[in-house]
UniProtKB/TrEMBL annotation:
Signal peptide interval: none
InterPro entries per record: ClpP/crotonase-like_dom_sf, Enoyl-CoA_hyd/isom_CS, Enoyl-CoA_hydra/iso, Enoyl-CoA_hydra_C
PROSITE patterns: ENOYL_COA_HYDRATASE (PS00166)
This protein's name: Enoyl-CoA hydratase/isomerase
Reactions catalysed according to its record: a 4-saturated-(3S)-3-hydroxyacyl-CoA = a (3E)-enoyl-CoA + H2O; a (3S)-3-hydroxyacyl-CoA = a (2E)-enoyl-CoA + H2O
Phylogenetic classification of the source organism: Bacteria, Bacillati, Actinomycetota, Actinomycetes, Mycobacteriales
The protein's role, per its UniProt record: Could possibly oxidize fatty acids using specific components.
UniProt record similarity statement: Belongs to the enoyl-CoA hydratase/isomerase family.
Keyword Nucleotidyltransferase: no
Keywords, alphabetical: Fatty acid metabolism, Isomerase, Lipid metabolism
CDD domains associated with the record: crotonase-like
GO biological process, one term: fatty acid metabolic process
Species for this entry: Hoyosella subflava (strain DSM 45089 / JCM 17490 / NBRC 109087 / DQS3-9A1)
Gene Ontology MF, one: enoyl-CoA hydratase activity
């Protein structure tokens, strides 16, 4: 089973085109992923990662559904939504070093939720449902959901989702802290763009370092963290941008970042 080349669309938006919007466009398959879609997503993530003018990316879905996960019809033919380098959906195993926001309209189930968990921030709507239905179908969620979800919501709630396969409304995930912002239906992308704009206005080196330290924090003991964080923080603290940030604060003006 193959997909046309435009199953992943990209657009540069915002002030100075610093925001990269990645849209999954397989509406006829509820934005489910096959291998071609995963490769297209990997290419989009690679473009985002390699372009220093891009500060933050948003992943969203065309049509009424964010993503139904793995395309099961494709899977039945041996066509799985993974790439050798970035893994599931072209992003789950090797995430970008810069921030990634999920803008979720409609449902994010199975791999759709796992795609959200590969992102750093999530914006969803009052009608969005999220869950891991795999066990109810005699499948196992292997896109990161079973080890990332318990890190981001209470363990017992993650267990209920994993073992029953029943979804919960995004409003519950918002209450538990997984979803950053809730909007009315149709407003997820606009709210994600507002959030992305706030990130794009911050110092790009500091944003990237902050993401890396936070992600690695789960691997470090408290004692290790004091030393290990400096691997990422030291180049920022000695950068031109840090000096510019301090000057701009003292002079009560907006900073002009150079990314160095």
């Amino acid at each position: 089973m193959t997909s046309p080349p435009d199953v992943i669309r990209t657009e540069r938006v915002g002030d100075e085109d610093k925001i990269f919007v990645i849209t999954i466009d397989r509406v006829e398959r509820s934005n489910a992923f096959d291998s071609a879609t995963a490769r297209a997503m990997e290419a989009a993530i690679d473009e985002f990662e390699s372009d220093d003018s891009l500060a933050v990316a948003i992943v969203t879905g065309a049509g009424p559904t964010f993503s139904a996960g793995q395309d099961l019809k494709a899977a039945a033919l041996g066509d799985f939504a993974t790439t050798e380098r970035r893994g599931g959906f072209g992003v789950m195993a090797l995430r970008p070093s810069k921030p990634l926001i999920a803008a979720v309209e409609g449902d994010a189930l199975a791999g759709g939720l796992e795609l959200c968990l590969a992102c750093d921030l999530i914006v969803a709507t009052t009608t969005t449902r999220m869950g891991l239905p795999e066990a109810a179908r005699a499948l196992v969620a292997i896109g990161g959901g079973l080890f990332r979800l318990p890190q981001r919501i209470p363990f017992n709630v993650a267990m209920e989702l994993a073992l029953t396969g029943k979804p919960l409304p995004a409003t519950d995930f918002h209450r538990m802290g997984l979803v950053n912002r809730i909007t009315e239906p149709g407003g997820a992308l606009a709210e994600a763009l507002t959030l992305a704009g706030d990130i794009a206005a911050a110092g790009p080196l500091a944003v990237r370092a902050s993401k890396q330290i936070a992600q690695h924090s789960f691997e470090w003991s408290d004692e290790q963290a004091w030393t290990e964080q400096m691997t990422y923080a030291r180049p920022v603290l000695t950068s031109d941008d840090t000096q510019e940030g301090l000057r701009a604060f003292a002079e009560k003006r907006a900073p002009v970042w150079k990314g160095r």
